[in-house]
Specification:
Blueprint (H helix, E strand, L loop, with lengths): L1 H16 L13 H5 L56 E5 L6 E3 L4 H4 L19 E2 L7 E4 H8 L4 H7 L6 E2 L2 H9 L13 E4 H8 L16 H6 L15 H21 L4 E5 L2 H4 L24 E5 L2 H11 L21 H34 L12
Antiparallel strand pairs: 1-2, 3-4, 4-6, 5-6, 7-8
Length: 390
């Protein structure tokens, strides 16, 4: 038994020093437990009850049943799918024409087709606000610079022009086409290596109508004339008007303001006019003066703005404006005339000889000064001996 106790002590020392042993399977019983005292049964813990608050119902609010709110169901995050741009456009399809210059139209306006040719040339004397040009190997169709169209229409750049108007087809000019535009002086030479976007003139007219026409008017210069008439626009409306009759309303308001101002000028009302003009001060009493030695200065008090009732202010203002001095410049003296005098050959030779002599003297003086300066700086100099200390 003594040997077994020594073995148990050694095993406990090893457990304290080293790593804890791995747990053995439940079926195997270690020898230390078999030799130990009988297992003690665990005593049950006392029944401890947690205090709970009594549930109190909330008072009803105006006897209105509120819907039962539940948290939204959780969904597993999915990978976002990039949606393609819509292929449906305003009045065109997503198919290109044979020449590849613009989209195939889906809708037409009979009145608008009479205002422009298939190549983009306008009829009835209309002119584009943007420059038009021909592109080699693209027939007689007219084209425009996208950047110039964006500037005329008020867009920041050509990207927004095509992004906001899906009916326009963006054409990137090739290098030979850019060289031809440079030769036509449409593009500067510095744009030779930049990407240049162009667009057909007819598609611009179909999209914007009177906004790209010089002195354009609604209905008269619009491609979609039928739509403009249905919206209530007339030929009196300027290009770019968003509300029908806005120009007429502005003209009526201006006429009413002019008539109101004219009627106000005809009515005569006595008004108070403040003025320092001498003509108004003559009819007013002179300012009171204070005698010397009575507590005031001997000089008269400065004239203050006087008040008088003017029967008609317009006549008064016209008199004041007419009496203001204006600077005038009197034209005096004979006009300037060039004095031409012929000189003989002898006089010209004499002046030339004097000029040559003068230049010769200047050259001699310059050479003498330069020689003096050079000799002065090349002359060796002996430093002065310092006096010995006493």
């Amino acid at each position: 038994m003594g040997d077994i106790g020594d073995d148990n002590n050694d095993e406990q020392k090893r457990r304290k020093r080293g790593r804890p042993p791995k747990q053995k399977p439940s079926g195997a019983v270690p020898p230390s437990l078999s030799l130990a005292t009988p297992q003690q049964t665990p005593q049950p813990l006392p029944n401890v009850q947690t205090p709970q608050l009594q549930a109190q119902s909330l008072p009803p609010k105006n006897n209105v049943a509120t819907p039962f709110q539940t948290s939204p169901p959780r969904t597993t995050p999915t990978k976002p799918v990039a949606k393609a741009l819509p292929t449906v456009r305003d009045h065109t399809t997503d198919q290109l024409e044979r020449d590849g210059g613009e989209y195939v139209p889906r809708e037409y306006d009979d009145a608008g087709e009479k205002k422009v040719l298939q190549t983009g040339h306008l009829r009835d004397g209309r002119e584009y606000r943007c420059r038009t040009f021909l592109v080699p190997k693209r027939g007689e169709k007219l084209f425009m610079l996208a950047t110039e169209c964006a500037r005329v229409l008020g867009y920041r750049d050509s990207y927004l022009l095509f992004n906001k108007n899906r009916s326009l087809y963006k054409i990137i000019a090739t290098q030979p086409e850019k060289d031809d535009l440079i030769q036509q002086e449409i593009l500067p030479y510095s744009y030779r290596s930049r990407p240049i976007a162009i667009v057909t003139a007819k598609s611009m007219f179909r999209q914007f109508g009177s906004r790209v026409i010089v002195n354009g008017r609604r209905v008269r210069d619009d491609y979609w004339e039928g739509r403009a008439i249905k919206q209530g626009f007339t030929e009196d409306d300027l290009a770019g008007e968003t509300r029908p009759g806005a120009a007429k309303a502005r003209s009526v308001a201006a006429a009413e303001a002019a008539s109101a101002s004219a009627s106000a000028g005809l009515t005569h009302h006595a008004e108070v006019v403040y003025s320092n003009w001498p003509a108004h001060l003559d009819s007013q009493p002179k300012p009171q003066t204070v005698e010397p030695g009575l507590g005031g200065p001997a000089a008269s008090i400065a004239s203050l703005p006087m008040i008088n009732l003017a029967p008609n202010s317009d006549v008064l203002h016209m008199k004041e404006i007419g009496m203001l001095p204006r600077p005038r410049q009197e034209i005096s003296g004979p006009p300037y005339q060039d004095r031409l005098q012929q000189a003989s050959a002898g006089d010209i030779l004499n002046q030339a000889r004097h000029s040559a002599e003068f230049n010769k003297n200047l050259g001699n003086e310059r050479s003498a000064r330069s020689k003096y300066i050079a000799e002065y700086y090349k002359k060796p100099r002996v430093p002065a001996a310092s006096a010995p200390p006493q």
